[in-house]
Amino acid sequence: MANRPIKNYRAGNISGAIWFNEREVNGNIVGFKTLSIRRSWKDKDKDIWRDESINLRRGDIAKLLVILNKIQEELFLADEHQKDDEGEDE
Questions:
Q1: CA angle at residue 11 from 77 to 52, to 5 degrees?
Q2: Mean pLDDT, the chain, integer
Q3: What's the pLDDT score for residue 89?
């Protein structure tokens, strides 16, 4: 049987999945969860769907959120400065 995610989430072309994994530690089978984030897009030149994924552990989520928030903040602040420089108001 193929390994399937225990939960899936999707927003547009971005999806996330939670996986249950097992490994042996000191002779005992230990279960743990991981996640995968995936972005899909259509390669119009070749008329095929493509995707890219990143696999993470639970401890990576907080770090990823901090980094994404900082990137988002920088991009929004940069956009605001560009608008100000171009004389545009909101």
A1: 85
A2: 89
A3: 47
Q: What is the distance, to the nearest Å, from the Cα of residue 75 to the centroid of all Cα atoms in its chain? A: 18
Give how far the C-alpha of residue 65 lies from the chain's centroid of Cα atoms, to the nearest Å.
10
Please indicate whether residue 79 or residue 89 has the higher confidence score (pLDDT).
Answer: 79
The domains of the chain are located at 1-57, 59-90
pLDDT value, residue 3: 83
Q: What's the alpha-carbon Rg for the chain, to the nearest Å?
A: 19
SS3 58: coil
pLDDT for 16: 97
End-to-end CA distance of the chain: 54
Closest residue by Cα to residue 4 from 27, 20, 15, 16: 20
Of 50, 57, 13, the residue nearest 35 (C-alpha):
57
For residue 13, which amino acid is it? N
